Amino acid sequence: SQERSARLRRWYELMMENKEELARIITAENGKPLKEAQGEIVYSASFLEWFAEEARRIYGDVIPASANDRRILVLKQPVGVAAIITPWNFPSAMITRKVGAALAAGCTVVVKPAEDTPLSALALGELANQAGIPAGVYNVVPCSRQQTAAVGEVLCTDPLVSKISFTGSTATGKILLKHAAGTVKRVSMELGGHAPFIVFDSANVDRAVAGALASKYRNSGQTCVCTNRFLVQKGIHDEFVQKFAKAIEKELHVGNGFDAKTTQGPLINEKAVEKVEKHIKDAVSQGASIVTGGKRHSLGKNFFEPTLLSNVTTKMLCTQEETFGPLAPVIRFETEAEAVAIANAANVGLAGYFYSQDPAQIWRVAEQLEVGMVGVNEGIISSVECPFGGVKESGLGREGSKYGIDEYLEIKYVCFGGL
């Protein structure tokens, strides 16, 4: 474990030494603003640092036996080869979050990066070599969009693979789960979200607006924990919408990710743009109003204006499925119970956010929200120390934190008899 720890630590140090170059790779292949890409690399590297430290804390157990002539031990052992399938929206961090834990546990990995963003995975491989991680421990299998389904199937069905860890859509996750069932593989799934962001009358509105901006428009709305629907209580609804619109217009700048003042890069592809358009068109046809934005940006291609909709209802597509783009729909609500009911009506539950300054309400709502992660008066909650993952159809297992390494360990019970 000490050697694994040292190699992971060296890999972390190399990432930090090369962070500018790694960030430029992300912006080039994913489009996110360079500042966000730099933030991702620091976040990404932090998982290698964290699991380098956790590698030496894989404790077993000694259990008092009921019979005097026995001793009971519990050992934790690596599950074996782990197949890692990652998305394009965090092309570096989604890899290290899984691989750091896997290598710390003593597993080897086969990484299949998203077809849109293979270069970050390969760059990590180069640094892994430089860090002295032995050949064959960190393996990358880039593949085309056409081959993705076939490669995914092989990784999930091959008996040599003991574990699948996937981050991506719920629909794809269900297909992989079916494949993995054939050989009863261990699975970790971090799937789609539909994050509610509830602003209660008691909230500090300015803070709520700042949190809303950060939570919704990071990576142009293309993160699995991005707010997908805003629920705002009637008493402060108009003030919130007005201030939110002003903040969007003043603080968000659409442009090339390499341009220093850009906060909103392009969407990943044409299909992503079409989905945002479809959601807006559907909402407007049912009576929603465009407060700001609403169309493709004049820069063309995959650029889209940051958009805010009001007069939104729960019948609209944008409040029923994940948009994965720069669209913020606002639903007005009356009571706390109503807000919680709307929030929990989804079949997924990854992140949820709410703003309130009423301590009793904070406890009630934090416990009632059916999500794996809750941000209370906070719009950005991801960090290496915290267990990342969801409930319902948002997935299985947790990543990061002291719990993340357990996903790559088997528990073995050893009984010593005849003593």
UniProtKB/TrEMBL annotation:
Gene Ontology BP, a term: gamma-aminobutyric acid catabolic process
Top-level taxon: Eukaryota
The protein's Enzyme Commission number: 1.2.1.24
GO cellular component: mitochondrion
MF-aspect GO terms: succinate-semialdehyde dehydrogenase (NAD+) activity
PROSITE patterns in alphabetical order: ALDEHYDE_DEHYDR_CYS
Pathway involvement of the protein, from the record: Amino-acid degradation; 4-aminobutanoate degradation
Pfam family name, one: Aldedh
Subcellular location: Mitochondrion
Its job: Catalyzes one step in the degradation of the inhibitory neurotransmitter gamma-aminobutyric acid (GABA).
Classification via NCBIfam families: SSADH (TIGR01780)
Name this protein carries in UniProt: Succinate-semialdehyde dehydrogenase
Source species of the chain: Panurus biarmicus
